[in-house]
Amino acid sequence: MKVPSAKRSRLISLFTLFILGVCAVTAAREWLRVEPMRTEPLSAAARRAQQPLGQQKTAPSITQAVNRWSGFIRTQFAGDEACKPCHVAEYEAHLRSGHSRTATAMTRTDFAAQLLRLQEYHDSRRDQTFRFRLKDDQFWVSTDSQTTRLKKPGQGRGTDAGQSITSEPPTNVSVKVDWLLGSGTHAQTPIAIQADGTQGIELRWSAFKGHSDPQLTPDHEAFDQFQPGTAECFGRPMDAMDVRSCLGCHSTVVPPPPLPLTAVTTIVNVGCERCHGPRKEHVLMAKKGLAEQSKPTINLHDAEAYMETCSACHRDERSVAVDATEAEKARFQPYGLKKSACYFAAPEQLTCSTCHDPHDTTSHDREQYIQQCNTCHQGTDHTVCSKQPTGDCVECHMPLTEWTQGISFHDHWIRVIDDDSGAIQTAPQTEVLP
User: Domain residue spans in the chain?
Assistant: First the structure.
């Protein structure tokens, strides 16, 4: 589910995402030597001018590039299971977290089984019916697409200007659904992508926790009216940037363009190596008792590095649209945290991991969070809450904000909100101890 944002915001988000995996992508690009796609073909003379004398080689085919990328994945990435023998607690915590199940092949999901039992789903907002089937172990959805045209003013007896009529009988269109994205903590949304990653579709219906039937995917009200015969029949069209950034934030690593996005080229779900980098060498060295000699390729050495890692997908001020609503902003925790007085007072100390175990599922122990606040806000009159000294810090200063369809997030912009007027006081109201 994607909050609509400006093209620039999506570009920044994708750029940040790729920076996180630079250790993988940079090395792979050098190894693969796949040239960027060109908008215009080079002339024969230009091609010869780019090659050393006596050579008439061309760039490797996509098939060759895929084989090399797969070799790179195989030799550089160890996989989560390889971390378990030495990091049992972190491994088991990760299994509890949403990160471990952010992308699942559609055919292997409970949601797919549910839709196949239903056989069809009627979208009352469009008066449109979607039908589901399994073919050759692939999940397919189909619907009827109608092409219409407008009557000219005065055309026919008793017609009004602009009245539409059907010019062609309905035709059946279908698309193969590839992935179900989301941990299921709140919701999960299916996507269909073209193998080369150049375009895709975010499907119009999603699975919401607590709902037995499919529900409208957030923000798809914008597609109640759609262009017949196009991807909009099924939901929100996705361009190449959408596809790679969307799947990329639900995966450990995705291949660089123009390689296709498949189960072979992509390590789905946010695993250990998404934040710690490729660790195959580390695992091999650990078996020899020399683990410390293989340093992390992504070094989370300070608070800023932690924030950069989380912000790549959970977003900060660089990738949240300038016209985003307050409810949308509350969905992106790093954005709010970096606006907080607490963060400005201790930027070298306060990060997402200050309150959340990055390996485990989000804790709902409110007392734990209050105690964390009190590690700084205690000791003097200036640091103790004047209204409720023993109250719930989170309830007042990080209010629960509904985003959509009963899904709510705690606003991580820690601040004082005037109870009487509802106005936000942006100036720091407390002194935070170092």
Answer: 7-32+61-101+250-293, 103-147+167-248, 318-425
Long-range Cβ contact pairs of 392-401 (< 8 A, separation 24 or more):
392/366, 393/369, 394/366, 394/369, 394/370, 401/326, 401/327, 401/330
Q: Is the pLDDT of residue 21 over 70?
A: no
Give the whole-angstrom CA distance, residue 429 versus residue 322: 26
pLDDT for residue 304:
86
Task: Classify burial at 343, counting beta carbons within 10 Å of its beta carbon; exposed 0-12, middle 13-18, buried 19 or more.
Answer: buried
DSSP 3-state of 132: strand
**CA separation for the pair 35, 96 (Å, rounded):** 41
DSSP lists the bridge partners of residue 129 as 122
- pLDDT single digits (tens) 300-311: 888 888 899 999
CB 94 within 8 A of CB 80: yes
pTM of structure: 0.78
CA atoms within 13 A on the CB side of 246: 29
- The closest of 263, 275, 260 to 306, measured between CA atoms, is 275
